[in-house]
Amino acid sequence: MTIEKHDLLKEFPEHHHTIRHLKMNDKHFVRLFDHYEALTTEIYRMETGIETPSDEVLEAKKRERVVLKDELYQLIKSTEAAI
Asked: How far apart are CA 40 and CA 14, in angstroms?
């Protein structure tokens, strides 16, 4: 099984211009984006065996990432709708 890192730009390549714009102009987006990227790295380390938490910890991190991803996507879509 191949384990992929879920970078936001890989998840939403069609929105890369909007993501770039938000990273330069929206501090709230930057905080969420940075947290998402750090969480993604942490999950990747767990899935590849570099870190070995319990299954419950890993699943909680994945749920947190989904919530962040949804919030980031909503910010992206609302920004695109305003343009």
From this structure: 20
